[in-house]
Amino acid sequence: MSERPLLAVRNLTVTYSGAPVVDNATFDIAPRRCLGVIGESGAGKTQVFMALMGLLPPQARVTGHAHLEDIALLEAAGAQVRGRSVAMIFQDPMTSLTPHLRVGDQIAEPLVAHRGMSWQDARVRAAQLLEQVRMSDVPRRLRQYPHELSGGMRQRAMIAMALACDPKLLIADEPTTALDVSVQAQLLKLLLELIQERGMALALVTHDMGVIAALADDVLVMRAGKVLEHDAVQRILTAPAHEYTRGLLAATPRLTALGAIPRAVQDLPPPLTARNVSVRHPVRGGWLRARTFAAVDDVSFDVGSGEALGIVGESGCGKSTLTRALLRLGPASRGEIVWLGRAVQDLGGEDLRRLRDGMQVVFQDPFASLDPRMRISDIVAEPLRALRPALGAAGRNERVARMLASVGLTPEYANRRGRELSGGQCQRVAIARAMILEPKLLVCDEAVSALDVTIQAQILELLDALKREHGTSIVFVSHNLAVVRRLCERVMVMYLGRIVEAGATGAVFETPRHPYTRMLLAAVPLLDPALERARLAALDVRGETPSALERPSGCQFRNRCPAALPPCAATSPGTEETGNSHQVACLRWRDLAN
Amino acid sequence: MKGRMRAALIVLVLLAGLALAAPWLTPYPHDTLDWQHQASPPSIESMHWLGTDRLGRDLFARGMQAMRVSLLIGVLAALVSVCIGVAWGAAAGYVGGRVDAAMMRFVDIVYALPYIFIVIILSTLFPRGSIAALFIAIGAVGWLTMARIVRGQTLSLRRREFVDAAIASGVRTPAILWRHIVPNVAVPVIAYATLNIPQMILFESFLSFLGLGVQEPFASLGSLISEGAQEMESSPWMLLVPAALLTTLLVAFNVLGESLRAMLESPHE
Amino acid sequence: MLIYALRRIAGLVPTLFVLVTLSFFIIRLAPGGPFDQEQALPPAIRANLDAAYGLDQPLLTQYGRYLSDVVRGDLGPSFRFKDFRVTELIAAGLPVSLTIGFAAMLLALLAGVPLGAYAAWRADSWAARALMNFSLLGVVLPAYVVGPVLALVFGIYWPLFRVAGYEPGDASFLVLPVITLALPVIAYLAQLTRSSMQEVLQSNYIRTARAKGLSAPVLLFRHALRPALLPVVSYLGPAVAFVLTGSLVVETVFGLPGSGRYLVQGALNRDYTLVMGMIIVYGVFTLVCNLVADLLYGWLDPRVRPG
After folding, report:
1. Cβ–Cβ gap C211/A99 under 8 Å
2. What domains, with CATH codes, occur in chain B?
3. Which of A218, A577, A585, C79 could form a disulfide linkage to C34, CB 3.0–4.6 angstroms apart?
């Protein structure tokens, strides 16, 4: 680097009660470059930048030096540049904006505070900033409150707020993690353009390699508070020096990798069948009219024996509601649900309970899935107590021990409590509990989404083994297409409660027929920086998923669809076969296939 | 924090012990009039450790008797309100939906009215001086906060996935309530129950202060304070003794309860 | 906002109805009437009295008559003070009760909230810790302990204020009662504000405001105060109820001619109409205050408003 670095950090250490969360971090950021900081949870990557911004709690002890050009950030002088030359945006836009102030005022505020502008002028400038972040309907947004905006819009507002005083360095802490994949793609594209337009430097903290590939020029790899590697992005992604980085890359599932392949046609009846399943939710508000909307609308599918079916879609698509309906856990549904040959949609009470040993579930939040007060052995034994009462205590203990071993937990875990385990360990316990009855059906509702990439890879291995060795059928709900590619032979894409495309995973992902599937696939970051920049430049993702209460008429996707034509507004597309059990619900799929 | 809790516990044990042992610690029963020592200040030689009241009754004996009454009523009434409150709140929180809305609406309406009206209404229904009636009247109101807290806890537990996992594992509803919900609400219930006791004592002494609670010849801390307030210019100890006893009792219970509550709010173990 | 307000107001009516109905039936169904206290009356006179007060009518008829009277503002005759109607009795004492109640609430808000906010902002200072210890005491002690003790100290040993009776226009009669009434509310509000403020200061949007480089006063007053006040506003309804209750005690202890005394006397004398009248008046007042608190909450927190 011939230029003087914009940000120079030397030997930065952050400790809490003597325990270091950041250990001797040293790195530079050059002007107009983007530094990607990657690491798993607990790596200390957020703490580094919180320290630079002076946002740590009073019990944190910070040593070392950091300079933004000439200003010493870790001393009193640092307060002068906060919000001006250096700005920060955070992960969760829902809680990061002040709920009782209008969006426009929150963006105008730094201008009034730091540039001495009048509120009137500042609001005008705020409107300009919202235009720059490609916000729709700017005059309306200025006057709205944060809770009236969607996630993507809130994050754009946050960015506008951070850019108000033309910072030289923008720090973004996991800015897209809480957002849908398509919105993430839009925001990454926005950040890329903003860096180029403004000549700004960007420090991007993330756990996602794809995001690194999209934006970073240089990469910092962190683990347990230490900096492991610091190099150009091309080198890191293709030939990393450190073994940990290699492990991270290996564990990251890729969309293009060869994934699960469906088995040949089976003559046995499928273990799980759903026909015309719909779930309606009541709508809040209004005393007289009891309005409902369909969270799940006329969904039909089968899951074969020993096969994994992936259900993908973004927030609001109804996949979680569908899984609860399949499990007969949530509100009543219409349509037919068949577990292992028995129709269960009308069963209740004891009848339903007795059949539960055929169908089990693993949930998303590993900590909330386990009763924090119970011992692990009791948690795993509970299904046996409920549904295999004939088995005595000895029999139960023996099975529990076997189950824990098969999910990779040593016997000493049996006596620990739920709250003492890590996320990955909790999820293993959840799988052990689910599998102890040897069910033929397993539903995984975003079961790996909350886990670090390396742990995620291990759990996916485990699930794969279940398929192969026990012949368990899995319904795997996820928003992560690469993970679905890895595990599932077949896949179903949902949008606003309906299936838009279904088929063998390879076929659907390589030759997608529905514009929404294409959009989802296009939104997945690739791990090659050059390809990634080109992808983002060409990206055409529009809008966000509308609320289920404001469904467009005809084809629900039409107001975001690049291929929509007038007939799409009039008729709702039915499901059509495109060959090889690949189905699509689009009026124009034939034209688009060419 | 632990130190305060221990101190509060010690104080409570001492006071309770004192109250129970009182008949052996003083030669005077609580209702005997001592003509020689009417309205006399505390003294060692007369063995009126805390003085006497206007009629010559020993204040130590009366005070300890009043404390026995207060403790008895406080603990029992708290027990009653805990049982009702937990049952109500857990049922409402677990069942949810319209049943929950109706049950909590009832709580809201009763809660919004000043409790004293309910208690006064109820205490006019029963013959004056019936202690059973008194503590039913008090306990009948004290369950409201407990119901709200338990319902809130149950609701948030109900939404946690381990309850769904239990249902999916085939566990029956009563077993879920007993093995999953109750142990997880037990800790907050204990903390708030401890805080409930001083509330009950307060209600009771308030009623006695107004003349509606414990009747002659029995004393309550509230009635002693009421008498003491009338004589405070000439015999300040008549006010200060029961006031000090009541204050200590209330503060000790509150510190205990608050420490328990603080303990459960911070990540423990 | 308007629709929200109207809907809340409409929600009051059923509650009021339940209140009146409940009081009526409970009191009427209680054993013992207003004339049972005195020596046994000859049956003929007793029958006349019953007829005069309408006590010989079937219950439902009495209820219907009562309802129609209440709506017209007539709360019936007092069974005890036979020359007066309940409305007159209550109206005589209401000004004093309202004055001390209102003054106490005002004092509590002006003292309790800033103290609590300060204790949250400067959490480690000795002032904050002393404040919290003091507030523990304030919350726990009832008015009938604090009142007489204050009267003893400030009325008799250091005669600064008056301790008994009341002369209209002379505020020194009201100082001690108001302080006694306000003390537990000040203590509770301080605790509430402090914990609420602490929670708000930990929130993500305060972190964002700090990241924007905003100064401490702006942070506190523009970003933190409104959300921190929400629990305080929620508490206003119960606080008013508390103050109403406390006013009974304070009036008794300090000998003030307020309307709270009537409730207690009415209960002791089984003066049905008086007790019910008091309950309705206080009940209405409480519900209205709850409503105001609700509306205030809606104004403070835009998320609660529809649309």
Report:
1. no
2. 2-24+57-265 (1.10.3720.10)
3. C79
